[in-house]
Amino acid sequence: MLYLSADEAADQLLSEDPLALLIGMVLDQQIPLERAFKSPYDLQQRLGGPLDVASLAAMDPEALADVFGEKPALHRFPRSMAGRVQELCAIVEAEYGGDPAAIWTSAADGTELLSNVKGLPGFGEQKARIFIALLGKQLGVRPPGWEKAASPFGDAGTFRSVADIDSPEALAKVRQYKQKMKAAAKAKASAPA
Description:
- There is one protein chain.
- By secondary structure, this protein is mainly alpha-helical.
- The protein has helices at residues 8-16, 18-27, 33-47, 53-58, 61-69, 78-95, 102-105, 110-118, 125-139, 146-150, 168-190.
- The protein has a single domain (8-155), classed as Endonuclease III, domain 1 (Orthogonal Bundle), CATH 1.10.340.30.
- 64% of the residues lie in helices and 0% in strands.
- The chain is globular and about 50 Å long.
- The mean pLDDT is 96.
């Protein structure tokens, strides 16, 4: 089972529902990762039923934004993230027949998988590679070339991203790594040329 939200029910949903996992990845920016990955569970609770691609894609955008904005908000920027999630669902509906897992199950290799993921809203180069690493390391999604597509986040024995979090201890190691990288970047930016 995935360990991303620090909430057992939310982690169970992430482990079983590809749409929940995709939504969590979309929301994983500018908020604590535990909050981002708990939000799909909270969204499901607020909607009163399973997360459904077609329903979310067709939902009135203002109504979805209101659901995202209910206290506590599902994200620091609830309106824009509601729009991004709705756009994600529209793409999954139109391009993958409403099946979020088809984003990865239809990919013949790592290159196609990277292209599929980068085609989603909110998935730039780095986030796409992190997501592929998460799929490969924790969910066994390993088309040929997945390691290269996930590089460097697919490297074994590292603690670079959410792809490496499988316990509270791993979460602490990922946080330490990120703090170290931020400090190095700050030192480099302030160094004389």
